[in-house]
Amino acid sequence: MQLKHSSPCQARSLGMLLIALTLGGWLSLPGAEKVRSIDVEPVWSGHPVGFGLLTRAPMQWVGYYDAQRQMSVAQRTLDSTNWTITKLPSKLGWDSHNYIAMALDREGVLHVSGNMHCVPLVYFRGEKPLDGSSLKRIVSMTGDREQRVTYPVFIHDQAGRLIFRYRDGGSGNGDDLYNVFDEKTGTWRRLMNQPLMAGLGKMNAYCSVPELGPDGRFHVVWVWRDTPDCSSNHDISYARSDDLVHWTDSAGRPLKLPITVETGDIVDPVPPKGGLINVNRELGFDNAGRPVVTYHKYDANGDLQVYAARRETNGWNIVQVSDWKGYRWEFAGGGSIIVEVRIGGVRPLGQGRLALSYRYPKGSGVWVLDEATLRPIPGATVPREKPLLPSSLAKVESKFPGMKKQMREDSGKAPAGTRYTLAWESLEANRDRPRNPPFPEPSMLRVIEAPSEP
C-alpha cells in the first residue's frame, strides 16, 4: 500500500523559544545555521529500535515502524517535502534488536531488510530503480541458513557489488555469513563458502561492520560471547581483508575460514565477566592510517576503564586511556540493555594527535591522544564534533516520563555541503520485554537537513 504524505504547517515550542515554523521550510535558530525539518509521519515510541535513512541524489528513503508498528519505507525527491509511503507486510513486536537496514545496488534498486532476531529472513527488493513503492517481499536469498537471522547489514565492496552480512543462529551460538548480489540475474549467492566467523556451537562473534580503511583494506573487530548473558563477552579480536573474501591477521598472515576463537587474531584476551561488551568495540585509524581498536574492561581494582590498542612490531600495544576511579558498570543478562557508557573510534587530528570521544555517568568529552603513545595529552582540547542536531531540535518534546531523543545518521551520500539526520523520540530499552500500558503517544519522525561541516 502506498500513501501520499505532505508535511503540514504547525507551531512548535522549542524550549523557551517560540518559533513559528513551516515544516518543510527553512528556519534559523539563534547561534545556529539554517536547518530544515521535514515531517515523515508519527512512529511507534514504546521502545527504541533502529530506523534507516538513505540518500542518493535526487532521492531519499526512510525505513521505520509507524504508529501501528508496521514496517514502512518513505521516499521523496530532495527538492520536495512530499513523501510516498509504502507499508510492508511485517510488524514489530517488543524487540529492540529489530532495526531496519537499506541499500541500493549498482542499478539503483532499493533493498530492505529488518525486523529480525533469530527468525526467518525478512527481505524486500524493489522492482524498479529508485522506486521504494515497488518493493516486494523476497522469501529467500540463497535458501540456506535463513531460518534464524539477526543483524542484517548491507555494504558494498570496492567494485560496488552489494554484500549482505547477517548472523545465523543465536547469541552464544551463531555464525557470520556473507552473500553477494548479482544484478544481471537478480540472485544472491554466498560470497565465501564458509562463514567469516564461527562459534562452533559454543559461542558467537559480535562483529563490527567491515570498514574500508585509508589503506584500501576492509577491517573488522569483534568480541566473542558464550551465552545470551552480555557479561560473557570475551577476547576482543581483529581481522583485515583486501576483498572481503581472503582475510589475514594484523601481521598479514592468512586466516583460514571460518575464523574461530582458537585461530583468530586476539587483540586483548579479556575473560568473560571482564568488563568487555559488544556495543563498545570500536575501530578507528590514526594519522598514518593504522587501525586502532578501542574498548573497555575492568582494571585490577575492578573499575571500568577505556583502552586503545594498535598493532606494533612486536604485537598489540594496549594502552589504558581513562583513569576513572570508583566507577564500575556491572552489566549482565540478556535482551537489549540500557547502555551507560559510549566510546567512539579514534579519529586523526593531524600533528601527531588523535581524538577519542566518550560518555559515562560521571561525564563526557573528547580525549586528545598522543599518537605515539595513545595516552591523553594533559590539558589538550579539541573542538567537539558538530552535533547531529542543533540543541533546540535535540530537546525532547514529549511530556511522557522517560522519553529520549533518537537520532540516526544518513547511510547514503548527501549532496555536497548538506547533512541529513533522522530524529524521533521513544522510551529506552526494556530488555526486549513488553511494557504495561499506558504507552507514550506516537512521536513525529523527522528528517533534519543542515549544512555539513566544511
How would you describe this protein?
This protein is mainly beta and 454 residues long. It contains one helix and 37 strands. The protein has one helix at 391-394, and strands at residues 2-6, 9-14, 17-22, 26-28, 34-43, 52-56, 59-65, 70-77, 82-91, 100-104, 110-114, 117-119, 123-125, 136-137, 149-156, 162-170, 173-182, 187-190, 197-198, 204-207, 211-212, 218-225, 233-241, 247-248, 254-255, 265-268, 281-285, 291-298, 304-312, 315-320, 342-343, 347-350, 353-360, 363-370, 404-409, 418-426, 443-451. Strands 20, 21, 22, 23, 24, 25 and 26 form a seven-stranded antiparallel beta sheet that branches. The chain is globular, with a radius of gyration of 22 Å.
Major sheet details: 7 strands, antiparallel
Tell me the number of helical segments per DSSP (H or I, 4 or more residues long).
1
Rg (CA only):
22 Å
Weakly predicted, low-confidence segments:
1-32
Termini distance? 41 Å
- The averaged pLDDT comes out at 92
Query: How many β-strands, per DSSP?
Result: 37
Q: Work out the oligomeric state of the chains in this entry.
A: single chain
**Residue share in helices?**
under 10%
Derived from helix and strand composition plus strand pairing, the structural class reads mainly beta
Tertiary shape? globular
Binned strand content: over 45%
Brief sketch in words of this structure:
The protein is an all-beta fold and about 450 residues long.
